[in-house]
Structures are given as structure tokens and as C-alpha cells.
Amino acid sequence: MSDAPLLALRGINKSFGVVNVLYDVDLTIYPGQVTALVGDNGAGKSTLVKAIAGIYPADSGDYLFEGKPVSVHSPKDAAALGIEVVYQDLALCENLDIVENMFLGREKKNGLFLDETTMESSAREVLASLSVRTVKSVRQSVSSLSGGQRQTVAIAKSALWKSKVVLLDEPTAALGVAQTRQVLDLVRRLADQGVGVLLISHNLTDVFEVADRITALYLGRVAADVAVKDVTSTQVVELITTGHSDGIAAPSTPAASV
Amino acid sequence: MTDITTDADEAGFASDLTQSNTLGESIRAYVSRVRGGDMGALPSIFGLVVLFIVFGIANDRFLSNLNMANLAAQSGSIIILTMAIIPVLLLGEIDLSAGVAGGVSACVMGLLIVKHDQQWWIAVLAALVTGAVIGFVIGVLVAKLGIPSFVVTLAFFLGLQGATLKLIGEGGSVRIDQPVISGIANNNMSVMWGWISAIAVIVVFAALRLLRHRRKVSQGLQHQPFAVVVAQVVALAAAVLVVTDVLNQNRSVNVNFPISGVPYVIPVIVVLLVVWTLILSRTTWGRHVYAIGGNAEAARRAGINVDLVRISVFMACTAMAAISGIVEASYGGKVSTTSGGGNTLLYAVGAAVIGGTSLFGGRGKASNAIVGGLVIATIVNGLGLLAQAAYLNYVVNGVVLLLAASVDAISRRRRSATGLG
């Protein structure tokens, strides 16, 4: 890990009323790496993602972006830093085509009118750079795309905007085998372009296939932050279900005892 | 193939074709799109042809030059009101009050001219502002308070009729004899200017289409086959020339007073059509209207100010409805207490749906108003000529609206079944 972290959260706490959801959570995302965020339902994955995206700002803790402390209080702040979230339900407009969706809300203009030439060329360029070959045409309407292709469009959108950090919320949850394969390949290529990817997933097969590091959450605490090559699937399951596993050191803040 | 495509091939993006293939293939693609439920304006053009044949056989005066010119003037206010309602339908909302809002606005215009001796253009401006203000209130109630547009505009449909009644006084009407306003529907361009304008429209349309085609080919963008572009230009040219020719014939029944020429309402419609087509298909605002109609949540997450777009759409709709009210007042020579009431608005919704705009939001375009509005106006005109009992008029229009909505619902189901756009 010679690279400096792109995004680092230190000692993040978040509570809703009397319920503490996150305790002193540390999370690091490196450029060019896929960091997997795993944990059981209710472990705090979504809350952590929302804290990063600025939807629910953290109560306390440091938010470092490219080494500098920043304050992120709204989704706009996060977007301005170059942090893009791809939600599980994708949020694409089915009646619009791929190009129109990729530029939605950030259309290129040529004076008064839309600059379709630039938009179509850049969309095609980005899809080609990510080796997306499953779509027939960039002018195809999204309603004619399969689930995997829609996920592809949503992820390619973040590449188009030169996002530095991309958070993917369960990108393969609703996909078949072949489509999952395509999306994971795409996630890998996105990271290879230097993007820091945070992959939220339940599926350990996916995690072991594509991730470089795993951060496991257990009841709002970080149970482990390890490189994929240092752990086995069984150990990760133990971390998710019990919060500790033999042979894996808990991170700096002891999380094992609840 | 262009070098762009070669680059794409190397990047493993081979299947993204910039040309939608040959003419034969694009005709086949069109047929399969139609069968998949993406019918666009096809049913309405077919319906229009059937109506012309049926009414032409039933009454020999229907196809006369005089009646054709009358049909053009009669359809004006319906077409404009349909154009007004289309952006609202694109959002997936409805504005039931657009007709009466147009009536109130025309009433404001009429009173300013007749009672307050204002210039016609000041009165027209006041009518447009009246429309926009009504639309603003409706938009705020729908977007900010979250009342369903159906309920808000039903309330306005009732309330605004009361406003017109109050402004004019019970049983009365405001006569419109101001020459400019009255001339919109009742005066004609000279034969020469009619031909010059027709040729100009065709030349500009052809030039723009060809330039766009050339630009798309040279930039390696997705484009239609050249033959399709030519076919579109030829079809438009034929339609424009036939209409101009019919309207430029002498249609007077009195040999001593020849009447010929294109009614001024037609250039008004053409300008509105061009403006709305540009707004909806080429501006950010237009793109956002479609996006909200398709998936409002996605539009919000993309950073679009959904409420602002909603409010502005309702404002644009009622301002356009005001223009329709003015054209209607010009055609009828008066604004009455029932202007824009009754089934005016349902005609417009019917026209939009017949023209190919979906009631479910996100699909449709400004040009749908032309064919759809002509279908509705033809029914009204034809049934009027046949001197049928009034009840039949209501029944036929009800059936047509239901038929159009069924076609919309069925084609929507087929689209989602076949995965077409």
C-alpha cells in the first residue's frame, strides 16, 4: 500500500437518537483499489455509505480527502469532491437513452441548445475505455437494457464524470451469473483507471473475486480491515457473524467485545 | 466505415454502430417497433385518412375548399391547446383547467380592448401573464404542497369558470372585432405570400435535416440512413404543398367575392410547433421534463430541481392555453361565459393521446398536437356537417378518447413486454 489513501474516515460516530449506529469507525479507500465493505444486515454499512455521501453527516470523527480534512454535509459537497454513489435501485430514466442518462443533470450545452455531438462522443469514448461491449448502441433507450447493462450504464456514468471515489451499493444483488461477471469486470477496470472503489456487498464470492481489501463491520464497529490475500472466506464469515476471527488482529480500536 | 468505428472495434466496443444500417433494415426495424407497441403517430395518421374518406363519402361538402379552410381555422385553437397540455402530460401530470384558463385569459384580453381601449398587443400580453400566473399557482400547489394535479386543476376548472362569469357578467359575451385579433382566424395570407412561405418552410426544413445528417456522419455519431432523411423531407414537402395548394384555391360560394389564401392561424401554429419542438428536444429544460416524466426520483438524484421544472411546466402550459383562448376568441368573434369550458380540455387531452403522447408521462412530442388536433377537429367538423343530433357528438368524442387511451395503455404494455423504448 504505497499509495496515499484517497479517502480516509477516522473515528466516525453516528447515532440516531439514543441508538448508536457507528462507533469509532475507521475506513480507508486507496486509489486504484477495490475496498469491500462487508457486514450483516444492521451492521451499519448503509449508514456509513450515507455518511460518506453526505446524506447523514457523521456526529463526530475526521473526514480526510486526499490527506486534507474536509467537511461533507450534503450530497453536493460529496459530488464536488468527486465522490459518486451508484445506488442499488440505479435511478435511471427508462424513457431516455444511454447518452441522455449519463449526462442527466449535467448536460453539455452549445449556447442555448444541447450539445449532442460532444455528449454522444464522450459517452461512447467512456464506454469503450471500460470495454463495455454489451450495449448495441449508445442511443438505445434504457428500458431496452437488461439489469446488468443498466448497472453498467450507472457505473460508466461515474467514470464519465472522472469521479475519484465511487461507492457501489450491492451492484450485483439482482443480477444473473453472466451479468454479475460483466459488472465485476467493469468494477475492476474502473479501479485500474485509478478510481478508489468502495464495494458494498453481501456476496463473498464477488468480494473475493474483485476486492483488494476488506473492511468488515460488526454491530457498528470495524471488526477487521485486512487485505484479501490475508484472509479466507470462512474467516470473513466469522468476522461478519461474530465480530472476530482467530488469527486476525482487530484494528486499533478494539471491537471484539461488545 | 469511418475511422471512429475502427477505434471502437479495437476497444472491444464493436457492436455499437453509428449507422442504423441500410434503408431496408431501418424499415424492418420500424415495422418491428410498431408491432412491439411503439406506434408513435401512426394510428392517428391512419385515423385521419379514414375520417376523411368516411366524411367525404357521407357529405359532398366535407372535402370542399371552403370546408377545408374552415377546418384549418377550426382546428387552430384545439391544436394550440394540445401543444399546451403536452408538456404537462410528459411530466405524467394533467391540467384539467387549461381550457378555462385560456377562456379567462382571452376574457382579460377582450375586456382590456373593449372596455379599457388598450392596444391589442398590451391586451395579448396581459392574457399571457394571466395564464402564467394561474399556472404558477397550480404548479406551486402541485409541486410544493403535493396535491395531485388532477384535484388541483379540477378545482381550478370550476373556480375559473366562476371567474369568467364574474368578469363578463351572466349570459353576456365580449365581442372581439379588433382587426388584428379577429384576423388571426378569419383573414388569409395573399396567395403569393402563401406559396413563398410554404417554399421557405420546405427549404429550411430540408437544409436543417441535411446539415444535421452531414454533421452526424462526419462526427461519427449515430444517424439515420440518408434515404430516411430524404423520405422525411419529401413527406413534409408533399404535405405542405398540398395544404397550401388547397387553401390557395378560390373557396368562395359567391363568384364576385373570391376568397383564397392560407389563414394566418396556420403560420402561428407552425411557429409554435417549431419553438416547442426546439424547447422539448434541444434544451436542458426539455430534457429534464422528459426525465421527470420517466423517473422523478432519478431526476432528483441527478441534481435536477424537480419542483422548479414542475412549476415552470404548469406556467408554460397555461400561458400557451391563453394563446389558444385568444385564437378561439378570434375564430368565434367573441369571448363568452362558457369559453374554454365544456369538453374543450378533453378534446385537447384526446388529441394529445391520439397524436402519440402517453398519459403515463415521459413520451410524446410537440408535433403530436398537429395530427391529434386535426383528428379531433375533423370529427367535430364532419359531424357538424352531417347535422347529427348533439348527443352523437358527445358519444363519438367520448368513444374516440377512450379508444386513444386504450391504444396508449396497450402499446405501453407491449413496450414493456418487448423491452422497447
Throw out a few tags for this protein.
heterodimer, A: 258 residues, alpha/beta, 6-stranded mixed sheet, 4-stranded antiparallel sheet, 32% helix, disordered C terminus, B: 421 residues, mainly alpha, ABC transporter involved in vitamin B12 uptake, BtuC, two-stranded antiparallel sheet, 17 helices, disordered N terminus
Distance between the termini of chain B: 27 Å
State the major sheet of chain A.
Answer: 6 strands, mixed
CATH class of chain B: Mainly Alpha
CATH topology of chain B: ABC transporter involved in vitamin B12 uptake, BtuC
Quantity of strands of chain B, as a count: 2
Order of helical and strand elements of chain A? EEEHEEHEHEEHHEHEHEEH
Structural class of chain B: mainly alpha
Shape of chain A: globular
> Low-confidence spans of chain A: pLDDT under 50, at least 5 residues?
253-258
Count of DSSP helices of chain B?
17
Number of helices of chain A: 8
Instruction: Determine the mean pLDDT of chain B.
Output: 85
The SSE string of chain B, one letter per element, is HHHHHHHEHHHHHHHEHHH
> Could you estimate the helical fraction of the residues of chain B in percent?
over 70%
Strand content of chain B: under 5%
Oligomer: heterodimer
CATH architectural name of chain B: Orthogonal Bundle
Strand order of the largest sheet of chain B: 1-2
Number of domains of chain B: 1
Describe the protein in words.
The complex is a heterodimer of chains A (about 260) and B (about 425). Chain A is an alpha/beta fold. Chain A has helices spanning about 45-55, 75-80, 100, 115-130, 145-160, 175-190, 205-210, 235-240, and strands spanning about 5-15, 20-30, 35-40, 60-65, 70, 85, 110, 115, 165-170, 195-200, 215-220, 220-225. In chain A, a hairpin with a 2-residue loop joins strand 7 (about 110) and strand 8 (about 115). Chain A starts with 6 loop residues before the first strand and ends in a 16-residue tail after the last helix. In chain A, about 50% of the residues are buried. Chain B has about 425 residues and is mainly alpha-helical. Chain B has one domain: Orthogonal Bundle (ABC transporter involved in vitamin B12 uptake, BtuC). In chain B, helix 4 packs parallel to helix 11 (about 265-280), helix 4 crosses helix 16 (about 370-385) and helix 15 (about 345-355) packs across helix 16.
